[in-house]
Amino acid sequence: MADYQAPLRDMRFVLNEVFDAPALWASLPKIAENVDPDTADAILEEAGKITSGVLAPLNREADEQGCKWNEGEVSTPEGFKEAYQTIVEGGWNGLGGNPDFGGMGMPKTLVAQFEEMMQGANMAFGLAPMLTAGACLALDAHGSQELKEKYLPNMYSGVWSGAMDLTEPHAGTDLGIIRTKAEPNDDGSFNVTGTKIFITWGEHDMAENIIHLVLAKLPDAPKGPKGISLFLVPKFMVNDDGFLGERNQFSCGSIEKKMGIKASATCVMNFDGAKGWLVGEENKGLAAMFTMMNYERLGVGIQGIGAAEASLQSARGYANERIQSRAPTGAQQPEKAADPILVHPDVRRMLLTMKSYVEGGRAFSTYVAQWLDISKYSDNDEQRKHAEGMVALLTPVAKAFLTDRGLDTTIIGQQVFGGHGFIREWGQEQLVRDCRITQIYEGTNGIQAMDLMGRKVVASQGKLYELFVQDVASFIEENTGDAALKPYLEPLAASLERLSDVTEHVIKQAGDNPNAIGAAAVDYLDMFGYTALAYMWAKTVKAAAPKAEGDTSGFYTGKLKTARFYFDRLLPKTVSLAEGIRSGSDAMMALAANEI
Ligand SMILES: Cc1cc2nc3c(=O)[nH]c(=O)nc-3n(C[C@H](O)[C@H](O)[C@H](O)COP(=O)(O)OP(=O)(O)OC[C@H]3O[C@@H](n4cnc5c(N)ncnc54)[C@H](O)[C@@H]3O)c2cc1C
Fold first, then answer.
1. What percent of the chain has pLDDT over 70?
2. CA 65: distance to chain centroid?
3. Residue spans of alpha helices (H) in 227-344
4. Is pLDDT of 531 > 80?
5. Quick one: which H or E segment has residue 184?
6. How far apart are CA 406 and CA 385, in angstroms?
7. Distance between CA atoms of 376 and 391, rounded to whole angstroms?
């Protein structure tokens, strides 16, 4: 198994050469004061050392050991406490956090690269800083000044970690039916009672305190999603002097045995009149959660790329070393008993598919992060509004498409290893198991597709979709004279037109047929994702082509050749997806329950 190495060269290429992120940062005054290219580069370098040198070496053994539950306490695998301490000492938890409360205020475009390294190196561990950063975002956006001052500095530092408590045994996708209750006390606090399940890092031994953000219902709350409020519930009470007080009234009832991310604790949390404080307004808890969801959902998409990158690194090394059979064109290494499997077209198909998804996906996550940065930090109202629209539209695509392709990539990586991919020793089967959850949590990928098609595309009658079309169309227009880009612009334009036709078709169908959106959604998101990746590969060609001549490293020439593979072999999937979508919902809905 190849040791995970943070893909710094590629991250720098995406940030500096494809997107010119430093120019974006300089144009956003609130970011410009926190980051310059040298600082960003130093952060990438240090992140690479920690993720490759500290987190990755723990990944395999921690998967074997898992977390252990004992009388409500959860102990983590060997080395996790020390690794967590390294994260705390480097201030990594607060990398993107609000500087007013001790965060480092770095742009998401940069933070996204760190997240990818952490998830690629050790996804189970990486969930702890990820959940803490998510909880901080919600608290920073919606908490009172008092709550922020009391909790954020220790959460940004990582001395305290965060957990998000939404799911209940009977309520996952449909949070409107949760039963956890919050009863008001005279002192402004609330008593929270109920059971939450599947709470990632809800209990553990790495941090001094764990701050839970819990969704619950007030006694007089309206029914459904409009009656949910958000509460901050600390494991240990925090005294006014900042020191920790008594243990709060809740505990971890058990942890799940599960398919992957075994080294992360997935907890049943029992709240028994636990003291909590309202975050944001009463009955507006779901809206508060959605603030951080755009970040979290992109973060989960990035988990898909992280796992896929780790798989690609191993598969690439293996394909160069493993010798089996001769190349169809004749022996390539006659001195050996057989040629490396890399000579076989099908192995190349596998590796190039992986490389297309990983590098195209990294560009796409950075593209979405760029819109998040503009939406958060621009001081121009119009620009901010435009960016918010892009974020709303692209977030479900980033979450679902990147995790779907992430799993595809890890499975292909496993296949490159043949039977050895099925054996634990090589690490590929762990990547498949770990990556699988990314399609399920933070809103299943089916729900992401419904969000894209229903809430974003159809509900806005295509207006949000048009923002994306305009962006791609202006790129095509600006570059029509570019000879290197010529072979890519035509299929990109054709793919965009195909997507636009299908978009219009489904918007029309949705008017008469309530099942139209659900029937089209997953294929539509896929089609959107493949088109978006084509756009990313075209941007990649634009950045790489001028440097390809005389490139002996293979970095830039490899980009151009991978782009060609993507356009020739993967983008055509949109044709069959479009056909399927146009067939409508009849075939799906025709069966009675006893016929399925
Ligand atoms: C390892 C792990 C970690 C997790 N971490 C957390 C955490 O930290 N905090 C937290 O709160 N939760 C967490 N979860 C819970 C996770 O977010 C939920 O499992 C997920 O949202 C799906 O909910 P569910 O399991 O109840 O499935 P259900 O909602 O019952 O869905 C079952 C199936 O029906 C589909 N479906 C449901 N409704 C619709 C609809 N309207 N239209 C179309 N299809 C639909 C779904 O897509 C899915 O395929 C975690 C889960 C796991 C397994």
1. 100
2. 26
3. 285-321
4. yes
5. strand 181-184
6. 30
7. 11
Determine the Cα–Cα distance for residues 402 and 398; give it in Å rounded to an integer.
6
- pLDDT over threshold 80, residue 292: no
- Count CB atoms within 10 A of the CB of residue 253: 16
440 Cα–ligand 1 center, Å:
6
- 199 CA to middle of ligand 1, Å? 12
Tokens of 316: 């690439």
Please say if the pLDDT value at position 548 is more than 80.
Answer: yes
Tokens of 496: 């965009």
Catalytic, 442? Answer yes
Identify the pLDDT of residue 1.
Answer: 56
pLDDT band for position 295 (cuts 50, 70, 90): confident
Tokens at 272, concatenated: 């028994």
Ligand 1, from 67, 167, 267: best to mutate by most atoms within 8 Å of Cβ? 167
Distance CA 539, CA 485 (A): 9
Which pLDDT score, from 0 to 100, does residue 348 have? 98
* pLDDT per residue as tens digits for the range 75-93: 999 999 999 999 999 999 9
Q: What is the mean pLDDT of the chain?
A: 96
Cβ contact 578:527 at 8 Å = yes
- Pairwise CA distance, residues 557 & 545, whole Å: 8
Closest C-alpha to ligand 1, atom 45: 447
Contacts of 35 (CB under 8 A, 6+ apart): 25, 105, 106, 107, 110
Model pLDDT, residue 2? 64
Q: DSSP letters along 257-291, please?
A: --SS-TTS-EEEEEEEEEEEEEESSTTBHHHHHHH
Q: Is 25 exposed, middle or buried (0-12, 13-18, 19+ CB in 10 A)?
A: buried
User: φ and ψ at 228, to 5 degrees?
Assistant: -115, 135
Distance 173 CA to ligand 1 centre (A): 5
pLDDT value of position 296: 86
Q: Is the pLDDT of residue 479 over 80?
A: yes
How far apart are the CA of 432 and the centre of ligand 1, in A?
19
Ligand 1 lining (C-beta closer than 6 Å):
164-167, 172-173, 198-200, 258, 266, 437, 440-444, 446-447, 450
- Asked whether the predicted pLDDT for residue 168 surpasses 70, the reply is yes
Measured distance CA(540)–CA(543) in Å, rounded: 5
